[in-house]
Amino acid sequence: MIRKQEALDYHSQGRKGKIEVIPSKSCQTQRDLSLAYTPGVAEPCREIEKNPEDAYLYTAKGNLVA
Question: Any idea where the domains of the chain sit in the sequence?
Answer without folding.
Answer: 23-60
